[in-house]
Design brief:
- The structure is a homodimer.
- By secondary structure, chain A is an alpha+beta fold.
- Chain A is built from three helices and seven strands, in the order E-E-E-E-H-E-E-E-H-H.
- In chain A, strands 1, 2, 3, 4, 5, 6 and 7 form a seven-stranded mixed β-sheet that branches.
- The longest helix of chain A is centred in the middle third of the chain and has 13 residues.
- The first copy, chain A, starts with 7 loop residues before the first strand and ends in a 5-residue tail after the last helix.
- Chains A and B meet through strand 1 and strand 5 of A and strand 1 and strand 5 of B.
């Protein structure tokens, strides 16, 4: 049997910050959605779990060491990424301590820490607004 | 940028049957775990959502039209599939009606409908027992 071809796999992190009143977004350095705000995240490497990939990508892009609070969901619409079919596993995360120092790194041109009350008026890359809404953090 | 290489993506279905007292397992026709019992499932095709893939694979292997009740979780341990790193998205499902006629098809050599009370004494392929336990159906 030939090796199956399946969608690419990514992770995205909704990182709660400042006593859960804010979340951490990055401004994308590269296409697609270059210059737009997005959740930190990226491709899952062969040999790592999706949880590990999420923690790694959060650190690589925001300098924040995170722990995973819960799985938000799996987002797999074939048209969600203009580069081709990409399925993302999204997690709700928190910094491991209050001493974490957010800093834009890697694929992040800059970093924005946004109040939950402001999120819904913003435009996010990909289906990241759907992910934020599904996380439940805007409901309380 | 070269195209990223990520783990292969599959879906697996825990299909509740007979008023939620049983689940539907298949006996695997092909390696790995040939001849062992497993959850119905398979690779996600480019262009379909994970929910669609789950419903399609359930139908292809068991002849049952299912609806998805909930996401159980994402299982991504790098050693869970001896063929290479494969990440599975697992769903709890139910037949769309009581008229569904289970029948082993495709990758299923045979089909077994097993009482929930019997599951824990069985051995399942891959990490499928972890998936069944995580689904919560054994708790009540």
């Amino acid at each position: 049997m030939s090796k199956p071809v399946t969608p690419l796999l990514t992770v995205d992190a909704v990182i709660l910050f400042n006593n859960k009143k804010e979340i951490v977004l990055i401004r994308r350095k590269n296409p697609p959605f270059q210059g737009q705000l997005a959740l930190p995240g990226g491709f899952v490497d062969i040999g790592e779990t999706v949880e590990f990939a999420c923690i790694r990508e959060a650190k690589e892009e925001t300098n924040i060491n995170v722990k995973i609070h819960k799985l938000i969901g799996v987002f797999s619409s074939p048209d969600r990424d203009p580069r081709g079919h990409t399925v993302t596993v999204a997690f709700l995360c928190e910094p491991v301590s209050k001493k974490e120092k957010p800093k834009a790194l890697d694929d992040a041109a800059s970093l924005e820490i946004v109040a939950l009350s402001e999120i819904q008026s913003m435009q996010l890359a990909f289906d990241h607004m759907d992910i934020v809404k599904k996380s439940g953090i805007l409901n309380s």
